[in-house]
């Protein structure tokens, strides 16, 4: 089964080494990996089209949903996960630390006051509402994609034990 790995890992200084390790993990768990680094495109439009083609070839999209350049996941990864879901692909995600959006925003802002219960309205330091459903990220990602705590390997193990339903 082909699996596309979405996430900001392509921006790591050791991206090539990470990709080799990720490919080995996928194969170990019985999946054929497809990564954004699998093509040689260098223009924005070329990368965009090549990544969409890889997602179309995959049966599953696994997304690294760790916070990236702020308290939310990488926006490109969010797009890829949404695109895969719209195509009816199986989608799932992983985070290093399983915490709610409210907890993550509060930590990013350095807030120490008690956090409200799930469902109680809360706001960030700019007065903007924070989704408080107890989900580890925005509901548009967390509802269609089961999210596991840990890294890629934890997510792959979860897929083998409990395959996710298609989008």
UniProtKB/TrEMBL annotation:
Keywords associated with the record: Transferase
GO MF entry, a single one: 5-hydroxymethyl-dUMP N-hydrolase activity
Protein known as: Nucleoside 2-deoxyribosyltransferase
One GO term of the biological process aspect: deoxyribonucleoside monophosphate catabolic process
PANTHER family: 2'-DEOXYNUCLEOSIDE 5'-PHOSPHATE N-HYDROLASE 1
Domain of life: Bacteria
Organism: Rhodocyclus tenuis (Rhodospirillum tenue)
